[in-house]
Batch of 2 targets.
Target 1
Amino acid sequence: MDQFIKGTYTVGITGASGAQYGIKLVNQLLLESYQVHLVITEAAWQVFDLELQLDVGNRERLIDDLFNKNRHLLCYHSLRDYSAPIASGSYKNDGMVIIPCSMGTLSSIAHASSNNLLERTADVMLKEKRKLIIVPRETPLNELHLENMLRLAKMGVTILPAMPGFYQQPKNLEDLINFVVGKVLDNLDVDHSLFTRWGEQQ
């Protein structure tokens, strides 16, 4: 019998630095029995290669290796797969997270360009007034970056920068990643224990 599915989310991973955030989020959602539709940009695949030193020659096999927990709940879509269910507002999609989000992708979403499946799905979230969380990873920010973020925030988008907190006394890189991913999960109302909350006993 199929495992109970708690809900459905789309996760987009773009070419901004910090692909680890997206990988961790997908694995946590799968672990908690959520169905995940995953879209990865071409620039993100380059980040997989350069930052994580992963072999991206066989993408399907790499997807299987990275997301092997509840793999049956993961639906991977190419950027040009406009027949994917997430491209339509009639599909029941609880929300979308773009993590990390490049400034180029953010700009396209802010201006409804819909140049690929990731951007189209984000546009669907906006028009259907569903949850959209964007995790930008860029510094410093110029005026256009800030204007695009403000434009989306006024439309109800949650702008959640990849800014890890240090009050939980992180011991390693994974602790820093867990903090940001945990904040995303909090905004999705998904239970987790990725970090120690303020006021909780260490």
Note: Residues 8-187 form a domain with the Rossmann fold fold (CATH 3.40.50.1950).
Target 2
Amino acid sequence: MISNDGKTNREISARTAQAKINFQKMKTILTNKHISIKTRKRALQCYIEPVLMYGCEAWTISKQIQDKLETTEMWFLRRMLRIPWTAKKTNERVLDEANKRGSLVRIIRKHQATFLGHVMRREKLEH
């Protein structure tokens, strides 16, 4: 969904909502303390992030949208680690606790660069 002004805010909001719904469906697995954080992060990568990032190659990411995506990423991690909002933990401490290095926005930028490479090579070697 691209608006008349070329923005994809509605699409990103819809994708975020769908990813959160899927997270809630898998909540028993993703928040289970008996499963290692590594395995839970892998499940998040395999089942939740693709729902969020579907079609991200065409997104226009402003600072506002970048902040929203980072907030969504932290929402996932805080729930996986069962960290309440009342706890005074910074996002950096949560990322350290989860051993998470890759940022969701960085992954989206990588997808966009890869897609741009495909578009740029469209009439070259493989054509």
Note: The mean pLDDT is 87.
